[in-house]
Amino acid sequence: MPDVVVIGCGISGAATAWELAKAGRSVTLVDQYGPASMASGWTLAGVRQSGRHPAELPLAMEAVKIWQGLDEALEASTGYTQKGNLRIGLTPEDLPALQVIAKEGQAAGLFVEVLSDAQAVRDIAPALSPAIAGATWCPTDGHADPDATVNAYVSAARQLGVETLFGEAVLSLETRNGRICGVRTASRSIPAGGVVLATGIGGNDLLAPFGCALPVDVRNVTVVRTRPLPPLLSQVLSVASACNSDAACAGRQQLDGAFRFTSGIKVWDGLMREERGRPIVAPTVGSLLETLQSFGDIVPAVRDAEIDAYWCGLVDQTPDALPVLDHVPGVEGLVMARGFSGHGFCLGPLTGKIMAALVQGEVSAVDISAFAFSRFSAPAASSSAPVTLHG
Ligand SMILES: Cc1cc2nc3c(=O)[nH]c(=O)nc-3n(C[C@H](O)[C@H](O)[C@H](O)COP(=O)(O)OP(=O)(O)OC[C@H]3O[C@@H](n4cnc5c(N)ncnc54)[C@H](O)[C@@H]3O)c2cc1C
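Above: inputs. Below: predicted complex with flavin-adenine dinucleotide.
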């Protein structure tokens, strides 16, 4: 019998499984598909502190400390590189929002400044179009390879004895006297003393029998990956324009030279199919054209690249665009990391530590009071915070 079953093998679940195994727990890691098959594979994979909500910023800063030593800890390459993030303002009207980002970052002790003319930004990233008004600049942000990262966690976890069960969905949670005692899949029942829900957009079906649900709107983001180009851009870029929401985009050049860039966050039509054991959400022609246009306007050289792949990624947006990192009320031994609202990749390594602590009955080493499940029972929870992808 495993001490803990972790449901979901995105970055949150994989990191949790590894942390638990390091702490000497026996763990089974279950995913209905396989490693990084949903948000943690669809993602842009920016590892960003700047532009975070003040409550989340300390977590992102703590997570970046872990990223800096992660390759060594996992004995594998995550493709992590720390060359900065530029949040671009297209027009002078966008600059006040950038000033707020800089102020909030500085208040938390993060170096982030506003570059208020195009040339200053292009001195850092010469591949950028001159038709911009400025940017925030945070040199300690970065990016990583999402598949490599999740697979590195899985390999390291397996080496420590974690059992993995892929291609098998958890259909229900089992409890006895208000305490979790296992999970059930289509083919087996797995007893466990603790369960971690790291199920991304999924998981409310599992919570329903206990009368609770995480309020999430599922949103859609179009992603394009090109064939490799020569090195042009080492930072992560993003645009969230006050005047033109169609211009929203984010992107980066991977270490292999390919560009990976995204649209802004859109309404999802609910269509998803499965192909070769993976979930697929396809972009419309319109969203693809818009994404190519908006990122091409920011990095003109990308227009010469061949397209290698495109897909849509789904985002689990909560009403306040912050995650829940907490015990599930009323079910002892059940903890949850969900609702990352489009920015949970950077947090992943820290999420693993937090979830491992909670499911073992320990207190998180970082303050997670802002991420309590109970905040959604308050009346203010019904209003929706605007969400943008900043890379
Ligand atoms: C296009 C896009 C761009 C993004 N860009 C960034 C970025 O630049 N920086 C950043 O920090 N974040 C970004 N994000 C967000 C980030 O990728 C996610 O927040 C993060 O990957 C979430 O990881 P997770 O492990 O919590 O969830 P997921 O990766 O979604 O993993 C959940 C897993 O649970 C499994 N699962 C669900 N239900 C069950 C069940 N019943 N039984 C078994 N398995 C189940 C699923 O198959 C899935 O593999 C982006 C997201 C998208 C879509």
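The CA atoms of residues 319 and 384 lie 4 Å apart.
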